[in-house]
Prior knowledge:
Elements: H1 5-10, H2 15-18, H3 24-37, E1 50-56, E2 65-71, E3 74-80, H4 93-96, H5 98-101, E4 112-113, E5 116-117, H6 120-133, E6 136-140, H7 146-157, E7 161-164, H8 168-171, H9 174-180, E8 187-189, E9 196-200, H10 211-221, E10 231-236, H11 241-245, E11 248-251, H12 257-270, H13 285-292, H14 296-308, E12 312-316, H15 321-330, E13 339-341, E14 350-351, E15 361-364, E16 379-384, E17 395-398, E18 407-410, E19 419-423, H16 436-443, H17 450-464, E20 468-470, E21 474-476, H18 483-491, E22 495-497, H19 536-545
Parallel strand pairs: 6-7, 6-15, 7-14, 9-10, 9-12, 10-11, 15-16, 16-17
Antiparallel strand pairs: 1-2, 2-3, 4-5, 4-17, 8-13, 18-19, 19-22, 20-21, 20-22
The chain binds iron/sulfur cluster.
Amino acid sequence: MKVTRRDLLVWSAGAAAGLMVTPVPWKVLDDVSIWSQNWPWIPQPPRGPVEVKQSSCTLCPNGCGLRVRMVGGWPVGVAGVASHPVSRGALCPLGFGAHQLNWHPQRLRAVRHRGNTSTWGEAHAAFAKACSEGPVVVIDGWPGRAASQVLENFAKSRRGEYRVVLSPETRALLPYERWSGAPATSLGYDLENAQTIVSFGAPLLDGWGAPGRFTRLWAERAAGMTDPQLRLIQIDATLSRTAARAWRWAPVRAGAEAALAAGVARVLLEEHLVASRGPMPHTTSAEAADQTGLTADAIRDLARTIVARGPVVALANDDNPAIAALNVVLGAVGTRGGVVRRSKTAKSYVAADAEIRSARAVLINSSVPWDFVPRTDAEVFRFAAWDGGSSKADWLLPAPGFLEELTDVPAAPAMATETYAVAQPLAKAPHEVRSAAQFLAGIDASLPTAEKIIRARCQDLFHGRAGTLCAQDQTPVSKVASAQKLEEQLWNGAVWVGEPFRAESFRCELKEWPTVAASVPSQNWLSSWSAPILPPLASKVFQESDLRERPEGRIA
Length: 556
Ligand code: SF4
């Protein structure tokens, strides 16, 4: 069974408004407590001073703000940070129990080589030998961090390649990258300024992006209102939780989202409902009706409703050029409330799923979802904090777990504004662990450390004099006394937030309506969910808690 972080987040739908009343996180915590009472190796926290540290969750690239309760130097509890500019106080259920993950039975405690216990020395020797024999491909699941830069530098110095597993939110931005040249990782949706959002299957209230971002927005601007300030129109084959709570739900046949986007765009252009900005789709309303299961009148109504209150933006749940083209037609690219460019420094990356042809070794960072399997015959060295079961890896290398290493936290996928935070190490690993960056430093001593890169980034932020430091108070960077002070504040849990985007920084030219191969509907709702961030505890919680709505309950 394939389970995703999104599945976990489904349980926290409405987290912002409903966390206190929904039983879901509390049920998850209860289950975790019951299991953990049966784990004899769980340490009893020592008596000692109680303190609260502020940090970021590093289990996935959303980097939600955390308040970590420490007793005697051990994290014993986590909570959200209400003032955090991205997560705004919310955490997903996985985040709530994250401090217990480090003691999970499936924690990877020793180096393993093809199923047998091995040593760091043997792993190091095998990797050094592989490096001397051919190129190395390094795969990362969370690009943009200081550690990512170490991995990228190493791959390039070995005539290899640095590849990335992108989140579905970032993959949905790939068409704009192809049409404008602006990297998908530099783009985001300005949801905060949109008035109508048309979601083609993006589970906005089921765990899309950082859990607090849209749920807070929804709670403030739409929940319970008959004529909300923020209109969410959900295009979904089934009555998902997002569809059930949306302002409008348009049920279409599974896999017909691109046809509907083309049908809507055609009505918009034919009826001059938008200033003509994009090419006319070949699909007629009648053809779109035929493919989607909606009537031609319903498609026309939908088109008129969409433009009734702007700014409007369409969201896809993955790489879907037709939905991106609809945004071009709507004039929602590079404009307030639409698809915006938040960064000029982010890069494009080679996707990790393409076949790896000529590598001697492949190194997979612990940020890569467990069910990612590289298409290669090369020797695979995989870093992981938890052993997720069968894997194609030749080597399994124990990586730091939750809050056991220093890492920086760049902007969450699809955010409209740049952010930067630092998560300091707050927990000690119960056995020997190494991050991929530390392991590579043992092979190539000239690589910079993550700490050094983070310091340089703090200095860049200070000298840029732009943006704001958000902690208890908000301080413009121009008023921060020194780079060292700025770094200190980030280490203590502050978040740097960049300037809002500028519309002129991003343009998308589209001459022809994109041809989209008809997508094959997945056989069941589970198989349509994409790559997870999945520590094994998550699947255990998922399987045993029985919290997920059953498929038959979701059929429209
Ligand atoms: S969404 Fe990601 S970063 Fe946020 S609490 Fe959950 S696992 Fe942590």
